[in-house]
Amino acid sequence: KRDLEIAESERAKREKELQKATAEGERLQRTERERKIVELIDRARAYQSEMRYAEALQAVDQLLLIDPINP
User: Fold this and answer.
1) Distance between CA 29 and CA 58 in Å, rounded?
2) How far apart are CA 2 and CA 58, in angstroms?
3) What are phi and psi of 32, to 5 degrees?
4) How far is CA 41 from CA 8, 16, 27, 34, 38, in A?
5) CB-based burial label for 6 (10 Å; 0-12, 13-18, 19+)
6) Under a CB-based contact definition with an 8 Å cutoff, are residues 37 and 67 in contact?
7) At 68, is the secondary structure helix, strand, or coil?
8) Deepest of 12, 55, 58, 63, by most Cβ within 10 A of its Cβ?
9) pLDDT tens-digit series, residues 14-61
10) How many of the other CB atoms lie within 10 Å of CB of 40?
């Protein structure tokens, strides 16, 4: 019986660690996605101010692939 309790405790501990790692991975993905969105918006604006409209449109196209509902 004691072995079963130990095994259950270890399983619960591993499951909690996995959930924590998964949450951290998801947080990192969101952070990276948000960083890329900001970078592309900034790039599009810079190209536009330099009248480099083809490059600005490319940046916007890339942005829309990542975040299609970005206003």
Assistant:
1) 23
2) 63
3) -65, -40
4) 49, 38, 21, 11, 5
5) exposed
6) yes
7) coil
8) 63
9) 999 999 999 999 999 999 999 999 999 999 999 999 999 999 999 999
10) 21
| Nearest C-alpha neighbor of 45 from the set 68, 63, 32 | 63
User: Contact, 46 vs 54, CB < 8 A?
Assistant: no
- Report the residue count for the chain: 71
CA distances from 47 to 18, 29, 56 (A): 43, 27, 5
Q: What is the pTM of this model?
A: 0.71
Residue 9 has which token pair? Answer: 């405790």
pLDDT digits (tens, 9 = 90+) for 6-20: 899 999 999 999 999
Please, are residues 40 and 28 in contact by the beta-carbon 8 Å criterion? no
